[in-house]
Amino acid sequence: MSNRENPSSNRLLVLTSHLLTPSQTAMASEKEAALAAVPSDSPTIFDKIINKQIPANIVYEDEKVLAFRDISPQAPTHILIIPKVKDGLTGLSKAEEKHCEILGHLLYTAKLVAKQEGLDDGFRLVINDGPNGCQSVYHLHIHLLGGRQMNWPPG
């Protein structure tokens, strides 16, 4: 029986949606996006940001990486740090020995940006990998989160 044929089912969906906190609703949306995303050779949104085809609030850039504010922040400070050249590095699970230099540079950049942002009391770095890791863009990226007390376990 469809929801149209069963009005009480519609009420249950509406009531259930009102029980979720905004952060739970955001997490559900992120999970849906991650499950819908599939790795491909097509340019990602990050490729378009690197190529200046899409605007971004850039906070740091050098010859190897780009850091910009997340458009859907999960903390007062939420910055994405990405390599400018993907080189097959769509996620951490795809890393090879040849990627060691850029992986180290990404982490060092995170430290520089955290200092620049005044996150002296601490911060968190997150790398989502694959559908179960809630990865929605298949271009390796690090989330730099700070400006509030982080909780444990994270997710």
From TrEMBL:
**Domain HIT span(s) in chain numbering:** 45-155
Instruction: Look up the signal peptide feature and give its range.
Output: none
Location of motif Histidine triad motif in this chain is 139-143
Q: What superkingdom heads the lineage?
A: Eukaryota
Q: Note the Pfam families from the entry.
A: HIT
Annotated CDD domains: PKCI_related
Which SUPFAM superfamilies does the UniProt entry name for this protein? HIT-like
Identification of the protein by name: HIT domain-containing protein
